[in-house]
Structure formats: C-alpha cells, structure tokens
Amino acid sequence: MAQNTTTGTTQIATSAPGAAAGKTTVVDPVVAKLAGIAAREVPGVHALGAGAARLVGNIREAIGNKDLSQGVKVEVGETEVAADVTIVVEYPEPLQEVAEAVRKSVARTITELVGMKVAEVNVIVTDVHIPGVDDKDADQVEESRVL
User: How far, in Å, CA of 129 to CA of 135, rounded?
Assistant: First the structure.
C-alpha cells in the first residue's frame, strides 16, 4: 500500500488486484476522533482533555454534540502519525499503567484503521477523578446558596 500525505490529510493509494483505481483521503480530525475513541475505551480513563476543554465538552454534550476528539492532538506526516492524548484517570488506578494502556490502544487503532505507522503517542495526565468526592463537589456547585 503506497501512502502519500498532503497538509492536514492522509492520502492512501491502493493497488490491490481487482480494485478500482483511485485514492482515499483521511483528514486529520478523523485520525484524532479515532484516537479519542480508542483512549476512552481504556479502563481507568475517566475523561479526555484538560479542565477548560472538559468544560466546553460538557456543554457541547449537553446540547447533543459530543466531541470525540476532545483532548487529542494529532500530527500526520508522510508515513507516520504522532498523537498527544490528555486524560483524567479514575482513582485509585495506577497512572503509569493507564497511560501505557492508552498509548497501546491509540497506536493499535491508528495502525489498524488508518493504516499508518505511529511515531509516538504522548499521554498527559492532567487530573485524577475521585468518585464520590469530585461528584459531590459538582453537586455543591450546582446548588444555589440563596433563595
């Protein structure tokens, strides 16, 4: 399979026997979305993105427009992809193990579904979600202090 990339897209030319001539173009946001889906599937991942991105993501989700690439940045080269994935981990999951599982899941998904090599997957852990405590804090914020 020959691969040719232009800025912001991945073009994959196929030459399989019996296949019609042509090219397939995969744009960067699709690669980011696939990486986001793969990262969310890892046990121990509570959310993707840093604080402000999660806030905007919660608003988008409330109006029915979930951003599956939230917290993911990809750089697509001619033959390789690099990804940065920002996560929030569930307490008491081991951070390094969750990060490694995210790295493997994202790399496998990009390799299998996009068909490109993965140069690197950087995982940034920005927070730890403590069930009950963080949920309680969110409930307290929503309550009005005045009548």
Answer: 9
